User: Fold this.
Amino acid sequence: WGNHDQPRCVSRFGFDRPEYRALSAKMLAACLYFMKGTPYIYQGDELGMTNNGGFRQLSDYRDLESINWFHAYTRAGLTTEAEMFAALGARSRDHARTPMQWSGEKNAGFSEGTPWIRVNPDYFKINAADEENAIDSVLHFYRSLIALRKENPALVYGDVIPVTASPKGLLCYFRRMDGQRFYVELNLTGKTVQHVNTGMRGTLLYSNYTTRREGAVMRPYEANLYQD
Assistant:
């Protein structure tokens, strides 16, 4: 959800509201790791790194596509400079190329010199050193997801059976193989949404929330994994 052709997904789709950034980053990780296929981590995904709020002028960007796009649209009168800066702030792929945020030290601990592209100014609050010491961090969530996949081949090779009756904003599906069955429910929104009653009475194995929910709604950006 952050690669060489895209901005950081946690920002691209508005998931990085301060109160929900970590929860939504974990939800996106669960979405990827509980699906079939080979997951990958692009630098900073495992920290919940966001788009670079320090990009405020065209010279801050290095991506030629972004720069050419800016000039082409503004010179043709198709959009204003302000509108193009807003578009680049949301969609430029340079956001996924900023220096890895190792610590709260100078240049996020990436280099004593001048990095080739501006460091994200939020490195003081989002960095590997801090997340290493926080048991509920995005970093530790990724580690546990990786371990969970290794322990359960059904989450890697099993069938994916979508729940087509899921309400808008929810992504729900089963994973099944060799008598094992898992159920995944993901709230892709920042609102509470009525959960799907599949009739499955499984055990909650995993959640990005540390407290159990009350009632029949899923909380903002909630992600749960159940097993029969």
Notes: Residues 1-5 have pLDDT under 50 and may be disordered. The CA atoms of residues 73 and 79 lie 6 Å apart. The chain has seven helices and seven strands. The radius of gyration is 20 Å.
